[in-house]
Specification:
With 205 residues, this protein is an all-alpha fold. It has 6 helices and no strands. The protein is extended, with a radius of gyration of 27 Å.
Length: 205
């Protein structure tokens, strides 16, 4: 009986979500000129945009808490106590809420800002901070937490060397891949420019 109620609840949410998605899509596809004049000024629109982005970020945190298996962290943040049926229902609520956010922004003629940071840059930045954190484990710095024995200093040196080797190997792979992609892109641009130059020369003849 309890399961039946949950299933009915999920089906109702799916239907409600479908209606919200239709409303959102209609709002997003409408010609901006045909929309009603926004009722908020520019500063208020900016604040509404930031509030919606913040709420979307909190929804992302909920998604992370729902599925801790997506990460192999050795320091998990949450205890997984949400069953699969509850997870599905909460995900439907999240989708419905996000559809409402999109509709709110569309109705106020507020464009969602596209991402500005590439995934490769985020990886590069994180690896840079990881290397800094490894350097903080040096015997000199750890000595600030109390006297350090010779064996302790030797262990720290080995820990640093092992961790840094793996981090730098990963970092080097990321940087080299990006460099090759950049070179390839530049090469394609040069080819296109050369072809255009040849076309112009042929037309001149």
């Amino acid at each position: 009986m309890h399961l039946a109620r949950r299933t009915c609840c999920s089906l109702a949410l799916e239907g409600s979500l479908g209606a919200h998605l239709v409303h959102r899509d209609a709002a997003m596809s409408a010609d901006p000129k045909s929309r009603a004049t926004p009722s908020l000024n520019h500063a208020q629109q900016r604040n509404l945009h930031n509030a919606c982005r913040h709420m979307d970020g909190l929804m992302k945190d909920i998604e992370i808490a729902l599925d801790t298996r997506k990460t192999n962290s050795i320091f998990p943040k949450y205890i997984p106590d949400v069953c699969s049926e509850e997870k599905k229902t909460i995900e439907l609520h999240i989708a419905r809420f996000r559809a409402q956010l999109m509709a709110v922004l569309a109705n106020q003629s507020i464009e969602v800002e596209p991402p500005r940071i590439t995934a490769s840059h985020a990886i590069h930045t994180s690896l840079t901070f990881i290397e800094i954190a490894i350097e903080e484990l040096s015997p000199k710095r750890m000595g600030g937490y109390g006297p350090l024995s010779t064996a302790g200093a030797s262990d720290l040196e080995q820990i640093m060397a092992d961790l840094m080797a793996t981090a730098q190997e990963m970092h080097g792979y990321v940087l080299n891949n990006r460099s090759r992609e950049q070179l390839s892109a530049n090469s394609e641009i040069n080819v296109v420019q050369e072809q255009r130059s040849r076309r112009r020369e042929n037309k001149a003849l």
